[in-house]
Backbone:
């Protein structure tokens, strides 16, 4: 009987564990990328693979400019936010020419 209990406990534990290797796949997000932004399947796949994509989106009037950008960050949200808010560390990276924090109060 103890053998069966161990097997059941092991199955319960493994069923609740996250499966590594599966990326997020949200059909609504992919539909938004295709229909609203006009991204191609290759561009959506590039985002999924961690590449940054930027695209000019048509505006209502010539005086407006709309830009869309997306990148998938392969990190825990908390770790990314700590990194993104560490301006002293970011300023030391060679890819950052300038860095400032703008606060817009309404």
Residues:
């Amino acid at each position: 009987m103890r053998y069966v209990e161990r097997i059941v406990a092991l199955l319960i534990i493994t069923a609740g564990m996250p499966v590594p290797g599966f990326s997020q796949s949200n059909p609504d997000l992919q539909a938004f990328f295709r229909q609203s932004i006009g991204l191609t399947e290759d561009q959506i796949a590039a985002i999924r693979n961690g590449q940054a994509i930027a695209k000019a989106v048509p505006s209502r009037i010539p005086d407006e400019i709309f830009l869309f950008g997306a990148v998938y960050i392969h990190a825990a949200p908390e770790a990314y936010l700590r990194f993104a808010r560490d301006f002293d560390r970011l300023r030391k990276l060679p890819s950052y020419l300038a860095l400032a924090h703008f606060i817009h109060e309404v």
